[in-house]
Write a structure and sequence with these properties.
- The chain has helices at residues 2-14, 22-39, 48-73, 135-144, 178-194, 200-208, 216-224, 228-231, 235-253, 255-273, 277-293, 301-315, 323-346, 352-376, 382-409, 417-434, 445-471; strands spanning 89-94, 99-100, 106-117, 121-124, 128-133, 149-159, 162-174, 378-379, 440-441.
- The chain has 477 residues and is an alpha+beta fold.
Length: 477
């Protein structure tokens, strides 16, 4: 553990970013440690000293690479090619699907290609920049989608999170490639089918992560009840898709072939949805799970989680600085590390159908408490109870939305409109009631961290003592 942590710190230092980015650094240490501790199980094999040396080398290399990769996440060097106060227009390629925000404006990340100044001066540029487009351009941007080259005039300004460009006008320079155009067409078809339904915005958010049509007041209710993660595509949503794939393919094709085909389907689904840190984590773990099924990896959830972290932070280091990335990994680590002991401690004392979700919710809550406190300044324990009701309802709602969409292709979806509307209203009523239960505000970060760690350790120690008592052989009388 120390070896991996020190190596990660060295990676930060060598990259010149040894700053108070302690949140990301904490996650790096955590998963470096997890990888290392899981590897210690191999020490039971011979020769012991040689195996120990190999583990230290692997842990140091992994920690160092993660340190460098994560440090790279904090850098987004934008080169305008001219003094930034002279920039009057920029040109670049949309790296993501434009999102409609408050006021009807659109927001997207642009990969810079050129910058312009007064006097028709145009120079090559590079880097990524967030652009806010006028409301008049939002529909056009949605129709052209990711991969489109645009030219826009406006005002450049620097913020705490980087450069931001407020566009005043926008022109399409070049359409996206054929694959991206096909992808955009599918997304537009989905939007057009669900538009006009009161529950359609929620269906689009849960199925493909499009939140443009989501009722803002409903999103606020989910946030204030501590259930924003239900709206963000993550493991829960991918699990629904994976379960449907397994249900349809496992029996006719067998476990291994259905898993491989499922991986292809999930890859295409992630391409359709677009890059989202929590969804990428879930997809990576599914892909690694396929290797487990094929016998190429050991069946160890924590090792899979740690390996997924390694791959994601190296492949897409920029995601490491996002809140969803940090919360996603810590929540799942909490489910594995804290949730499992809770299940063992409560086994036989709580109904089986409640035991798993309660343990998972409590484990995720404790693991993410300090980070949630740091970013949002409030903890909402009521979300644990509300989630026990909303998560199953959301699963039913997602499956119903999929069935509705398939039937709507053949104009047979009419009979499902009322049930979907009723389910939507039920979910809205539940969060409307739950939001009246206040959260714990104005929490001191250090106190939150200490209390959450203490409670987590208490659960783990109690479970350890329980197992030790079970394994203890009583002497013969």
């Amino acid at each position: 553990m120390l070896c991996a942590a020190v190596a990660a710190a060295a990676g930060f230092y060598c990259y010149g970013l040894f700053k108070p980015e302690w949140l990301l650094f904490t996650v790096i240490i955590l998963f470096s440690a997890v990888s290392f501790v899981n590897s210690l199980a191999l020490l039971e094999r011979k020769p012991r000293k040689l195996q120990l040396t190999k583990i230290f080398i692997i842990a140091a290399a992994a920690g160092f690479v993660m340190g460098i990769s994560a440090a790279g996440a904090g850098r987004n060097n934008v080169n305008f090619g001219i003094p930034h106060d002279k920039v009057t227009a920029i040109e670049g390629v949309l790296l993501e699907d434009p999102r409609v925000i408050s006021g009807g404006r659109a927001m997207a990340v642009l990969s810079l290609r050129k910058s312009s100044a007064s006097g028709a001066l145009r120079v090559s540029s590079g880097g990524r920049i967030t652009v806010f487009f006028p409301e008049d351009n939002a529909l056009t941007l949605r129709q052209f989608g990711r991969g489109t080259s645009v030219f826009t005039e406006g005002v450049l300004r620097e913020t705490d999170t980087g450069w931001v460009y407020s566009a005043k006008s926008m022109h399409i320079v070049k359409r996206s490639g054929a694959v991206d155009r096909m992808r955009t067409g599918v997304r537009l078809n989905l939007i057009s089918r669900f538009e006009g339904k009161s529950w359609g915005g929620l269906a689009l958010a849960l199925l493909v992560g499009i939140r443009d049509n989501l009722d803002t007041s409903l999103a606020v209710l989910y946030r204030d009840t501590g259930l924003s993660h239900i709206l963000a595509l993550s493991g829960m949503h991918l699990a629904v898709l994976a379960s449907i794939i397994a249900f349809l393919l496992k029996k006719p094709l067998g476990l291994k072939l259905s898993a491989v085909i499922g991986a292809v389907i999930i890859f295409l689904y992630c391409f359709l949805v677009g890059p989202m840190p929590s969804l990428n984590r879930s997809a990576l773990m599914y892909f690694l799970g396929v290797f487990v099924i094929l016998g190429a990896l050991p069946k160890d959830p924590m090792s899979i989680l740690a390996l997924s972290f390694l791959l994601q932070i190296i492949i897409a280091p920029a995601e490491g600085n996002t809140i969803s990335f940090i919360l996603s990994y810590l929540a799942l680590a909490g489910i594995f590390i804290i949730g499992q002991p809770i299940i063992a401690l409560l086994s036989g004392k709580a109904p089986d159908f409640l035991l798993q979700p309660i343990a998972a919710s409590c484990g995720a809550f404790l693991a993410t408490a300090a980070i949630t406190c740091f970013f949002f300044g409030v903890l909402i324990p009521m979300g644990i109870i509300t989630g026990l009701i909303l998560v199953p309802l959301t699963t039913v709602f997602m499956i119903g939305s999929m069935i509705w969409f398939i039937l709507d292709i053949f104009s047979l979806s009419g009979f499902l409109n009322l049930p979907m509307e009723m389910l939507y209203q039920l979910k809205e009523k539940i969060v409307s009631v739950a939001v009246n239960v206040p959260g714990i505000t104005a929490i001191n970060l250090s106190v939150t961290l200490i209390v959450s760690i203490a409670l987590s350790l208490a659960v783990i120690v109690l479970e350890y003592r329980r197992r030790a008592a079970l394994l203890k052989v009583k002497p013969f009388e």
